[in-house]
Structures are given as structure tokens and as C-alpha cells.
Design goal:
The protein is of the alpha+beta class. 34% of the residues lie in helices and 40% in strands. The chain contains 3 helices and 4 strands. The protein has a 4-stranded mixed sheet with strand order 1-2-3-4. It is elongated, with a radius of gyration of 14 Å. The protein starts with a strand and ends with a strand.
């Protein structure tokens, strides 16, 4: 099955329309978001971008939790370390 992904930056405004359009075209919708996270290196903190893609309903619930709660980048990093199941996590750059 052909699939297409949509990522919004820290929100999910386009999800409903995208999901419906993909299903009507016989394509698998993949839903995600671009978020900022942080790595702590000794004294300095470096911010970096992550793309989160939901692999399944469990991943979508985790993605939804991160976006709806508007978690800070430090919390996102900790949360992602704890829950990897259902989400594909891509570090950019």
C-alpha cells in the first residue's frame, strides 16, 4: 500500500483533513510532528529538531500527548527515552 506522511510543527491542525483525503485515495496516512528537544553536553545544552511519526494507534496516542500538552523540550527528551514503542523518531541534521 502506498503511504504518505504529514508532519506539523508542534501541532496537528492538518491531521483530520489529511487522514480523510489519504483514505479516500486508497493511501495509508502517516501522522507526525516536528518538535524541538535538547541534549545536555557537560555544561551546555544543545537544542535539536526531531520528527515524530506514529507507527500505529499507540504511537498516535503518544504523539497526541506530546503535542496537546505542549511539553517543554526537556520533558519531550525524557518522555521519548521512556516511551519508544509506536513512534518512529528521526533526528534531523
Amino acid at each position: 500500500m502506498v503511504a504518505m506522511a504529514l508532519t506539523d510543527f508542534t501541532n496537528f491542525c492538518g491531521v483530520v483533513r489529511f487522514y480523510g483525503e489519504m483514505l479516500s485515495l486508497g493511501m495509508k496516512p502517516i501522522i507526525g510532528a516536528d518538535v524541538k528537544s535538547q541534549k545536555v553536553h557537560y555544561v551546555a545544552m544543545n537544542t535539536f529538531d526531531l520528527t515524530l511519526l506514529a507507527k500505529n494507534n499507540e504511537g498516535y496516542k503518544k504523539y497526541y500527548f506530546i503535542v496537546i500538552k505542549r511539553l517543554t523540550s526537556e520533558v519531550i527528551t525524557t518522555y521519548l527515552i521512556l516511551i519508544k514503542i509506536g513512534l518512529l523518531i528521526i533526528e534531523k541534521g
